[in-house]
Design brief:
By secondary structure, the chain is α/β, with parallel strands linked by helices. It contains seven helices and eight strands; from the N terminus they run E-E-H-H-E-H-E-H-E-H-E-H-E-E-H.
Length: 285
Amino acid sequence: MSEWDGRFPHRDPLPYQTVEKPLKTSARPSILSEYHRCNHRFGGFFDSLLRSRLVTDEPNAVTLGPVEPGVIEVSPVGPSNYDRAGAADRRPRRSAGAPTMQTAPLLIVSGSNRPNSNTLRVAKIIEGHYRRLGAPVELYGLEQLPPEVFTPEAYTRKPDAFVLVQQRVLEAPGLHVVTPEYNGSFPGILKHFIDLLKFPESFEGKPVAFVGIASGSWGGLRAVEQLQMVFGYRNAHVYPDRVFLPGISSKLAPDGTLTDPALDGRLAAQTAGFAKFAHALGAAR
């Protein structure tokens, strides 16, 4: 019996006997339920698109704009069917002198604290792609974490050296996380870093992109998918275009570049797409 054939087995009073009775409603998922499922899967991204009306041919719409730093002009829009209260969207208009999300750099997080790790080398490649786009970007490797964060007191009172790191995460319009795969998951140091950051504001509505690396043939797939669950729980906006780099040890040249042009092209496409993704969501917030 097919999963979606609209029928369901019900237990008959007689022992070991079953009969099939049609369901009163169809078991097929509706388009609306699929929308809600996908919207939840990507952290509310589709809701954000509906609210911001990301088109370029309407005078009251938010413009996606270029990747380069600039000012986004956000105009109030009228009530829509999506807004159940029927109230107008009162997003403030940003003046030319006001700071925008593009004045703050995207933050690349290298998810390993091993010195001179392959993770850090890939993160630097991604940084180079952003700089060629003209997008503001910073790189933070977890080997830079201050030793004070490893004391038990760090959970109740954040060390002064970590406060600056926390502020960089809060101000970043998006996070680009590069993670290796250790023992079928992401590194414990990366989870510790996440746990130290303020809840919920550090990742609430934050655009996040993922790159997985591994020596094996799956390229950190398991590590990335487990991270997606963590960031989904924190209500981040997960960028759907992920990149996985398998056999990483043999694909990095001594100068730190990738020897596989196809993989490097995937990273370049992801950085360009994520810069626009973070730009658009920052304009919609």
